[in-house]
Amino acid sequence: MFPWKWARVKAQLRLPVVLGVCGALSGAFVAGCALLTPDEDASLPAQYGSASALYDKAMAYYQRGQYARARDLFHTYVGQYPDSLVLRVALYYLGHCYQMTGDTKEALALYNRIVTSYGDQDFWGAQAMLRIKQIKDQP
Hints:
This protein is mainly alpha-helical. The chain has a single domain (39-136), classed as Alpha Horseshoe (Serine Threonine Protein Phosphatase 5, Tetratricopeptide repeat). Helices cover 61% and strands 0% of the residues. It has helices at 3-13, 19-22, 51-63, 67-80, 87-100, 104-118, 123-136.
């Protein structure tokens, strides 16, 4: 575990990290591994209140298989937080939402953006490469 990475995530998302839960993770951000605190960012729609709340809401819809709603929220997140430390994760899930709703052209564009920006040696870049191959191998 690299504490400086969690410190950057904490600073970016304004979250106190729960080390007992997150300490076992190997550097990947996983939804639900931190406690939410209020955020004074007034540029976000009031119903979400913070970057982390918006991300968590999008992930909750994604996990329930409500890909169209998750897509809309991930899209909002990516637009509101282009410098987020978890941008590549949000882009990946946004791409998968497009894929699951049948828009493979947009999914491919997002997966290619991840690979171009972060490389295929990055975990999310490698996952995006697998999705690209999956889409291209479809009949």
